Amino acid sequence: MHVLAEANLRLDANAVDYVLLAFYFLLVLGIGYLARRQVSSSLDFFLSGRSLPAWVTGLAFISANLGAIEVMGMSANGAQYGLPTAHYFWIGAVPAMLFLGIVMMPFYYGSKVRSVPEFMLRRFGKPAHLVNGISFAAAQILIAGANLFLLATVVNVLLGWPIWVSIVLAAVIVLSYTALGGLSAAIYNEVLQFFVILAALIPLTVVGLYKVGGWEGLVEKVTASPGGAEQLDSWPGTELTGFADNFLSVLGLVFGLGFVLSFGYWTTNFVEVQRAMASKSMSAARRTPIIGAFPKIFIPFIVIIPGMIAAVTVTELMGENKAALLAGDDAASGATFNNALLYLMRDLLPNGMLGIAIAGLLASFMAGMAANLSSFNTVFTYDIWQSYIKKGREDAYYLRFGRTITAVGTVLAIGTAFIASTYSNLMDYLQQLFSFFNAPLFATFILGMFWKRMTATAGWVGLVSGTFSAIGVFILAETGVWDLPGQGASFVGAGAAFVVDIVVSVVVTYMTQPKPEAQLAGLVYSLTPKDSLKHSTTGDDAGWYRKPGLLAGIALAITIILNFIF
């Protein structure tokens, strides 16, 4: 593990910065305390009683994703690969978010399920439900650990405390408000954190661009740096994918990232779907991911560009040091790309502004980790504990258990934080996890939703086969049997998981008996009454600016234009 408390990374915070930080933490805990007063049932704790407006759930939807991984990981990617990182947003997020709002959300919200695994239970039965519940819970703990590790590195840099002390402190703060107020506390804090993150990153980007002489100055410096002009065009992104061939690189981006990883993450990941399910109406639930897509389109400009600026202005990351890092030698400067944003903050921001920036970073990490914990506690309580271990207890029991398992999840995340600490670019780690957990789930999900013949046995066998094929690709890449640099291993693993899952599911389906059609209404597209998929257009849902289809069309048009410009 890299020790980040070296003098060269210590942020020169003063009393003003610490006062701002203390105020922010009091505000976060206060929101948790106030939200607790609204929690009287398990539905309130796990799904906010389905009472929140679309703008709140929409901002929480994007803030839950704007965690440490997004802010530090994407700026690390910006420093390492440059503009091809924008694919994680314009190819790897927005289209899938729009698909979730238009096609998938009516199923989730309309069927009144409380979690994605519960949808799997109704469609495929207990084995698929249990496999999905366990794999999802494991994924959330691993991802929460990555958020926690990055949160701890910032506390470590700020105060010089040992990493393990920082990890425990950070975990306790997030646990406090998530266990107090449940999903409402997490969501309202995520809305606050969204604005704090913007207040931190926009000035950093503006000051950074001013320092390098504007966009033209940045282009000039990046062209002359290791990695060169390729870092200024998002296509074909060969460095990012690890494929030397342009066609294979584009195929990897469009199919591996844009379809399998992206749709797998956004449409079946309960961390995100949970926010939309907390909405107060079907229309608000559909608008949630679409509203979230608009900030998502523009976030690359405040996370990737600071990373690119860091790679041409920060001593530890530029010139020979960057060349060494690109070659895999992170001992040369003692730095990693993960620290790009911290270095830039150290070099550019005055006191006061530094306090806001640090609060913004901490906000992003806490938003990400709280999202992981609030979805972990829901799935573990409803889909594992209530379904298989302690059935038929009173509601108050599950509410108490939900708070307890939140604490257990936090302790486990402290353990997984040390796994995350072994990666010099955490996006490599995250994409690997998504290829294991999300890609096969998406294949099972999409097949089951649109193919009524698919059987319950095919559901869980396909899921397990897909997961193991992705793990197989990972092992082959790690042992050097396949040479897949960059994030190529996760793209290939995701593609393999998806294809294997589909093939196995089709074969098993024709060897087993399907469910009667009467049991599949509301779970398969062709068997669901079209009226049940419609939403109201009156009252709070009236007005052209509340039409999900129109909003999705505008977001898609902007995304296509940006892909052509960059």
TrEMBL record:
Record keywords: Membrane, Transmembrane, Transmembrane helix
GO molecular function, one term: D-glucose:sodium symporter activity
Membrane topology, as annotated: Multi-pass membrane protein
Primary location class: membrane
PANTHER family: SODIUM_GLUCOSE COTRANSPORTER 4 (PTHR11819:SF195), SOLUTE CARRIER FAMILY 5 (PTHR11819)
Family from the record: Belongs to the sodium:solute symporter (SSF) (TC 2.A.21) family.
Name of this protein: Na+/galactose cotransporter
